[in-house]
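Go through this:
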Amino acid sequence: MSFIATAPTPPKTPANVIKNDGFFPDFDMREVRDTLRLDGTITDARLRHALLGAIVEVGGDLAAWKEAMRTQGSTTLASVATGDLIDGQSRRTLAYVRAVYSLVKADLIERMADYDTTGTGQKRIEWLADAPDEHRRNARWSTADVQGRPRNVVELI
């Protein structure tokens, strides 16, 4: 039997909220940490860096769509008509958050391997080798869901 020690989750401190652009929702790093099941081995600085990168990437993917929605009078993602609410949130908001979370997780998994990785750690990384691609796929699907587009595009080669 082997034992793997992980750092404890950082103590609960006042919310460390990352403000978004006003159209898309803000992110509370504690909520991100809880949702993605991140323990204390992922520092707040590392999580913040991954979260900012994901927000920028998803925002870039949705920039043209966001401007189209603004010209139609929507001031926030939550105000874009979607019909039913799920747990009090619009489907588009849920999809946006999922896209950001998926990219955060992909980024953290890709950067898990470091110079101090042990043999056991290397085996775990090999086991997770496909996970970043799957998270990036989920992010692309979620950005398509935000825009109300089909999830895939097929081309004749």
